[in-house]
């Protein structure tokens, strides 16, 4: 929803969809827009009454019979009036209920049943978890999974999973009834900022959380006592823990956690006496929360204040991230070492339990956290898939398991990279060492044992493990019965790539003599090949769905082995009897075209022996120039494979060619006719018909033929379906219809017979065709779509590479994409494609350079190394010779060898040379000599890209990249020129009409000008892991979503609505509320409901989408920016709907929704600027939407400025205009911007004309509308609706301008006559052009935003005396009856209501 639209159809009643809004806990209300769906949903939801042992003694909950009893338990734990319960079970009719059975399976239960909550005795584990639960309720937990992350997290850094929604959303009006509306935080926030500076490159402040008011304190401290653990004789009688509590009143109590509950004991700091304390403090409670309330008189009030404080925020902003890895922001607020409250956003606070949380969570020996990951993975895979609720349980467990494994693997990999885990083979070189930590097997993504010596060494090994994760994810998604994969995660941390895998049973088993370590595929390189029959069927299914073919391979002895998958893909029969697929990095063929062009085999081994003393290939090449590869053949590895998306697309193209072939269609037509005849014969038991029946049947067939005479498409579709049935029935060979590729061509295979050689040559030719298809079709089409606006323009490198991957294009073709853009032309949009591709290549090249240094640097010196590398990369304009700031004492401590301190030798020149070399080597793109790696003014964008790729967290501040006095615009072509077509000045103005000076376009230039270098070691806060996991998506939830889309497209709205809600429920059940997939389905459904005019549901889902996106993908992720833009548009039109009627349906009023909509749109705009820069090609749409929102808020001056900026962006950055888009007799003025005479520009001129009319600038309005009319007429013709609308408006505005001019002239003449007659005295006017329209009379036109300026008013042949409110209605198409026009005329004569696309 990049642009707004409004259908002409009437808005449906909001009451009809009021009850479809999902609640904040993710559940969906039982009522839906479909009555049948509502009845069915109501039948599947029960209201249950739960009896409680304490006040309020009973409560009601809603539950589905498909939910498990443990889900009911969890719901009770989270209810405000049942917070205190954590150790209990539920009973029905006096019988305890099993936590792991479905509610519907409990005997005798049904709607309105009564359950009883019974408190259980504590165990030590339950007591520890109860204490942790209390700390979470009191806001004292520092666990990583809590909202906002933790400054003490050793892996994910600061602010992991934090959200800014409550900070971005403006304050609710104080007169809002019933407090603040859902999702809007009522706090002190700055006023709505409507200013606009299109030249600014974005500020890092956009993604920095502002300091918030501290939460109310409920206790001073609650911690594990120094007397813990209980001695053996007291543990035997039920003592579990000893706690120390300090209340708000500064009283200290020693508390015993007993199997029966918690009580105050007689212990003191020096005396141990755990017996219950006598009166007046002889208090006991089953819940620690209840006991604290009894001990502290001020606790209840403080706890209520804390709950009120938390309730001010959107609930999704406070929930813990449990099923997703939290994204670590690249920029964080300054972290202070001071402990003073409020001294810094990240101020470190004293908390003794912070170091005790590991014990409270996992026990003294941490055995509770040790899990058999592999057994859990494989047991989960073997769970039943039918019925549906079993499949839901299976996929939910899978999602949770992958999230837990990813978290554990990331923490273990960080320890391995830091050298804190003992290797299993310490005598091996570092790259060849393996580790086991937390039952996870770790190894380095390097060629430690020479497996990839002939394919690129360490570079090949690094690529192989990355592609292995992708392959494991693909196989997991296929979910082939009987085939298992280990849990796999790849972590890049401190320049080191670490692979974490679940331990496959038998992987370390020493086989007997003659037995092979691998049961299927290559065993020792490719010399020995195994082909166990047990793996044939599962691998055949994988290959079939991956569009690769069964093929022969040959071992070193020339023996043929027929494999279903690549020889590199291995099968292992585990000791648990399961079949495991390993090394899945070669599921698709090699990109032979690329390798033949840019890869050369390494030197022979005999020649290499002379250089064995050299540790790195680059150093050997320097000593032996004859061994250095030619520059044209120096691609770093041979594992350049085709993407699965490309193989799928090529498969579709070939299938389409087969189907559309006339000879094949004839076979399909014949098969269809035979099937029709057979079906006709089977209608009679004996297969015969009498004469009368036969005549009727012939007549019926003739009628059918007449009906389908013109329906060639229908006939063709039936013929194609019949043809595919022939293929499925093996009546036509599969290889004739489906082109499957051989994954092992060009990989050193040696066929023995002529027939085998011919077959291999045919397979090689097919793979070459696929590579040609990529180079000649897919990549040029992608470049064309970006250039012509057919694809949404990415905002950063991550979005660009994601788009490339979806199209089947590998990242190595970034250089080709940039080259195609350079060759296509010099228009702004085409050059934007090139700049973005070059930026991504440079950022990736810097990542490789930085990782090469960081992996050898001691961790305490890594911040100094990163800061120096960033200074050489981005700070050259400030200091051309930055000096490293490494701590000399630390260097001496870690040794004087220079192996880890090579970063100190880097200079801006040497770093540039290495980056340029990496760009050419990896992407085949030449950066010209003398051209800066980073465009002036866009250093912050490159810094962001570098931090995200390397895994850096830096202090979020405005860095100084240039010396004082250097123009930020020097060498930049990103200046935005406001069009002069509206008659106003060309200078860009802010909200107060002041022009922005060129030297002020970037705040980065004005900060810290006295600095000698841009970055210091203290600016690098920490390093965070960059994680790639193998978690599959839920196929069940996706099926429901696709079904809902198809039903909506087929006008089956009731069924579609039900399926969409079912899909939403499945996503939330399987993934949890906070997960990227849930965020995406929120966004998708909000878009669908928006198109269906169901505004309340669209706004609610869009709001959730924005929150979950930023908390699970990142504060400035491309999808987060789009989610905020979508939310803004939904809120804007919802506000328009509330204003148009008095019906309810949306909680917020127009006064609340409009500011929120504009704030969210502005936030999306600022995120785009921070990620891309000031001139994003699709930014015109965002500016246009913002102008419409300001116009709705009656901010006419700022809205006109935003319209002008949108028009300027559109004219300068619009897609190239086709040569034949304008008539031959249409004269384009010399020097006209490329996007001047386009539909987008004409629509924006239409809206700008209306904005100028609202400002009383009638001449400017007429000029803009005339240009809009001329453009529409040239593009669409005089009869098009848009042309007629512009013509009608042009006539009205012209008449109004004439009327205003006449009235002004008459007034001036009247004043002149009065002056001559002495009937007027001199008056000091407060403002030029004030009342009476004097400025208009003398020809002066104001370009500023002045609400009351100008006396001319819109009219038809006479002075328009309407008020501004009436004029607004007229502009917005709501003026019916008052102007003598028929009702609805203005409403249809407004292109802005149809949107600018």
From TrEMBL:
Q: Which GO terms describe its molecular function?
A: mRNA binding
* One Pfam family cited in the UniProt record for this chain: CLU_N
Instruction: Cite the CDD domains for this sequence.
Output: CLU-central (cd15466)
Q: Which keywords does the record carry? A: Cytoplasm, TPR repeat
Q: Which residues fall in a compositionally biased region of kind Basic and acidic residues?
A: 24-42, 604-635, 671-686, 693-703
- Which stretches does the entry tag as region Disordered? 1-42, 330-349, 604-636, 671-716, 965-1010, 1378-1397
Name all Clu domain ranges.
346-595
Xref: InterPro entries? CLU-central, CLU_dom, CLU_N, CLU_prot, GSKIP_dom_sf, TPR-like_helical_dom_sf
Q: Mind telling me which PROSITE patterns this protein's record contains?
A: CLU
Q: Which domain of life is it from?
A: Eukaryota
- Which Gene Ontology cellular component annotation is one that this UniProt entry carries? cytoplasm
What GO biological process, any one, is recorded here? intracellular distribution of mitochondria
Q: Which SUPFAM superfamilies match?
A: Hypothetical protein c14orf129, hspc210 (SSF103107)
Question: Which PANTHER family does this entry report, sorted A to Z?
Answer: CLUSTERED MITOCHONDRIA PROTEIN HOMOLOG, EUKARYOTIC TRANSLATION INITIATION FACTOR 3 SUBUNIT EIF-3
Name-wise, this protein is Clustered mitochondria-domain-containing protein
């Amino acid at each position: 929803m990049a642009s707004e639209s409004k259908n002409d159809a009437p808005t449906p009643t909001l009451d009809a969809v009021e009850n479809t809004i999902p609640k904040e806990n993710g559940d969906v209300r039982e009522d839906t827009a479909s009555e049948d769906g509502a009845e069915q949903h109501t039948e599947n939801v029960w209201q249950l009454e739960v009896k409680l042992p304490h006040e309020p003694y009973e409560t009601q909950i809603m539950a589905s019979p498909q939910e498990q009893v443990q889900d009911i338990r969890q719901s009770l734990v989270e209810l405000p009036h049942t917070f205190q319960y954590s150790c209990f079970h539920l009973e029905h009719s006096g019988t305890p209920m099993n936590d792991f059975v479905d509610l519907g399976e409990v005997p005798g239960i049904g709607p309105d049943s009564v359950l009883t909550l019974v408190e259980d005795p504590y165990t030590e584990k339950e007591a520890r978890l109860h204490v942790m639960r209390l700390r979470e309720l009191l806001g004292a937990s520092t666990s990583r999974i809590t909202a906002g992350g933790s400054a003490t997290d050793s892996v994910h850094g600061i602010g992991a999973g934090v959200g800014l929604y409550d900070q971005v959303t403006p304050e609710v009006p104080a007169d809002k009834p019933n407090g603040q509306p859902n999702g809007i935080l009522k706090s002190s926030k700055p006023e709505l900022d409507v200013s606009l500076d299109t030249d600014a490159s974005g500020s890092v402040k956009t993604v920095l959380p502002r300091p918030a008011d501290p939460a109310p304190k409920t206790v001073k401290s609650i911690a594990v006592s120094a007397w813990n653990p209980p001695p053996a004789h007291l543990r035997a009688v039920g003592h579990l823990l000893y706690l120390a509590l300090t209340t708000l009143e500064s009283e200290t109590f020693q508390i015993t956690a007993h199997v029966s509950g918690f009580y105050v004991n007689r212990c003191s700091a020096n005396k141990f006496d755990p017996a219950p304390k006598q009166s007046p403090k002889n208090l006991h409670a089953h819940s620690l929360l209840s006991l604290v309330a009894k001990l502290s008189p001020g606790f209840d009030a403080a706890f209520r204040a804390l709950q009120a404080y938390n309730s001010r925020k959107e609930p999704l902003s406070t929930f813990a991230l449990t099923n997703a890895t939290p994204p670590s922001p690249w920029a964080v607020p300054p972290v202070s070492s001071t402990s003073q409250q409020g001294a810094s956003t990240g101020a470190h606070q004293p908390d003794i339990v912070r170091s005790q949380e590991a014990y409270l969570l996992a026990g003294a020996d941490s055995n509770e956290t040790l899990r058999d990951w592999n057994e859990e993975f494989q047991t989960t895979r073997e769970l039943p898939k039918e019925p549906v609720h079993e499949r839901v349980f299976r996929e939910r467990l899978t999602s949770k398991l992958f999230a837990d494994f990813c978290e554990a693997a990331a923490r273990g990999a960080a320890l391995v990279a830091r050298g804190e885990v003992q290797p299993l083979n310490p005598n091996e070189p570092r790259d060849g060492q393996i580790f086991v930590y937390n039952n996870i097997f770790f190894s380095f993504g390097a060629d430690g044992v020479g497996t990839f010596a002939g394919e690129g060494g360490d570079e090949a090994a690094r690529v192989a493990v990355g592609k292995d994760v992708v392959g494991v994810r693909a196989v997991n998604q296929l979910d082939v019965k009987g085939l298992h994969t280990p849990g796999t995660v790849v972590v890049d941390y401190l320049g080191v790539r670490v692979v974490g895998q679940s331990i496959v049973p038998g992987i370390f088993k020493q086989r007997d003599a003659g037995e092979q370590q691998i049961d299927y595929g290559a065993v020792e390189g490719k010399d020995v090949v195994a082909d166990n029959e047990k793996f044939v069927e599962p691998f055949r299914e994988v290959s079939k769905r991956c569009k690769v073919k069964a093929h022969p391979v040959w071992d070193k002895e020339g023996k043929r082995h027929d494999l279903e998958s690549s020889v590199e893909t291995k099968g292992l029969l585990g000791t648990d009897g399961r079949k495991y697929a390993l090394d899945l990095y070669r599921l698709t063929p090699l990109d032979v075209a690329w390798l033949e062009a840019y890869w050369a085999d390494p030197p022979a081994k005999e020649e290499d022996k002379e250089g064995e003393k050299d540790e790195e290939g680059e150093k050997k090449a320097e000593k032996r120039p004859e061994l250095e590869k030619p520059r044209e053949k120096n691609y770093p590895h041979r594992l350049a494979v085709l993407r699965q998306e490309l193989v799928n697309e090529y498969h579709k193209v070939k299938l389409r060619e087969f189907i559309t072939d006339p000879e094949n269609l004839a076979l399909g037509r014949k098969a269809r006719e035979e099937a029709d005849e057979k079906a006709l014969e089977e209608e009679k038991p004996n297969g015969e018909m009498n004469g009368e029946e036969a005549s009727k049947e012939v007549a019926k067939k003739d009628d059918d033929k007449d009906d389908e005479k013109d329906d060639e498409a229908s006939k063709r579709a039936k013929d194609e379906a019949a043809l595919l049935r022939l293929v499925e029935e093996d009546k036509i060979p599969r290889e004739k219809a489906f082109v499957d590729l051989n994954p092992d061509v060009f990989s050193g295979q040696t066929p023995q017979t002529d027939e085998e050689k011919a077959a291999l040559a045919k397979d090689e030719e097919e793979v070459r065709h696929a590579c040609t298809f990529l180079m000649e079709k897919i990549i040029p089409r992608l470049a064309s779509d970006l250039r012509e606006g057919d694809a949404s323009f990415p905002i950063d490198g991550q979005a660009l590479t994601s788009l490339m991957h979806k199209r089947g294009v590998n990242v190595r073709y970034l250089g080709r994409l940039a080259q195609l853009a350079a060759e296509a032309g010099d228009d702004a949009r085409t050059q934007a494609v090139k700049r973005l591709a070059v930026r991504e290549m440079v950022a990736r090249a810097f990542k490789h350079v930085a990782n090469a240094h960081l992996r050898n640097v001691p961790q305490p010196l890594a911040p100094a190394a990163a800061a120096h590398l960033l200074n050489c990369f981005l700070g050259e304009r400030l200091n051309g010779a930055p000096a490293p700031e490494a701590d000399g004492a630390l260097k001496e401590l870690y040794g004087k060898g220079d192996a880890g301190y090579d970063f100190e030798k880097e200079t801006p020149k040497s770093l540039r040379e290495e980056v340029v070399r990496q760009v050419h080597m990896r992407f085949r793109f030449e950066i010209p000599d003398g051209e800066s790696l980073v465009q002036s003014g866009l250093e912050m964008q490159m810094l962001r890209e570098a931090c995200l790729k390397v895994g850096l967290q830096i202090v979020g501040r405005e860095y100084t990249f240039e010396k004082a006095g250097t123009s930020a615009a020097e060498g930049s072509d990103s200046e935005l020129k406001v069009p002069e077509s509206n008659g106003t000045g060309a200078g860009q103005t802010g909200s107060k009409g002041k022009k922005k000076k060129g030297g002020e376009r970037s705040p980065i230039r004005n900060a810290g000008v006295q600095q000698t270098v841009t970055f210091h070691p203290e600016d690098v806060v920490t390093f965070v892991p960059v994680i790639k996991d193998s978690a599959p998506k839920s196929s069940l939830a996706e099926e429901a979503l696709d079904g809902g889309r198809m039903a909506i497209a087929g006008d089956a709205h009731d069924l579609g609505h039900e399926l969409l809600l079912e899909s939403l429920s499945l996503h939330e059940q399987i993934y949890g509320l906070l997960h990227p997939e849930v965020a995406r389905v929120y966004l998708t459904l909000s878009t669908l409901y928006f198109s269906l005019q169901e505004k309340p549901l669209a706004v609610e889902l869009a709001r959730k989408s924005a929150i979950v996106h930023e908390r699970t993908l990142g504060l400035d992720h491309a999808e987060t920016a789009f989610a905020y833009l979508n939310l803004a548009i939904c809120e804007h039109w919802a506000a328009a709907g509330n204003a148009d009627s008095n019906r309810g349906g949306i909680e917020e009023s127009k006064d609340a929704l409009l500011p929120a909509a504009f704030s969210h749109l502005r936030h999306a705009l600022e995120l785009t600027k921070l990620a891309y820069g000031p001139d994003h090609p699709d930014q015109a749409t965002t500016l246009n939407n913002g102008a419409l929102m300001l116009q709705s808020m009656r901010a006419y001056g700022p809205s006109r400025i935003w319209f002008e900026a949108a028009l300027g962006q559109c004219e300068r950055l619009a897609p190239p205009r086709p040569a034949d888009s304008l008539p031959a007799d249409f004269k384009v003025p010399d020097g006209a911007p490329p996007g001047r005479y386009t539909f987008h520009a004409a629509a924006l001129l239409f809206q700008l004309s209306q904005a100028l009319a609202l400002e009383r600038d009638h001449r400017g309005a007429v000029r803009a509308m005339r240009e809009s009319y001329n453009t529409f007429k040239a593009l669409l013709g005089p009869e098009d609706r848009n042309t007629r609308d512009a013509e009608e408006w042009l006539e009205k505005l012209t008449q109004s301008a004439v009327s205003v001019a006449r009235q002004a002239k008459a007034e001036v003449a009247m004043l002149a006559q009065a002056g001559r007659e002495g009937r007027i005295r001199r008056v000091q006017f407060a403002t030029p052009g004030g009342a009476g329209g004097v400025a208009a009379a003398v020809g002066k036109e104001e370009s500023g935003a002045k609400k009351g300026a100008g006396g001319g008013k819109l009219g038809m042949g006479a002075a328009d005396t309407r008020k501004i409110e009436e004029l607004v209605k007229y502009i917005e198409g709501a003026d019916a009856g008052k102007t003598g026009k028929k009702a609805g005329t203005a409403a249809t004569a407004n292109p802005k209501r149809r949107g600018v696309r």
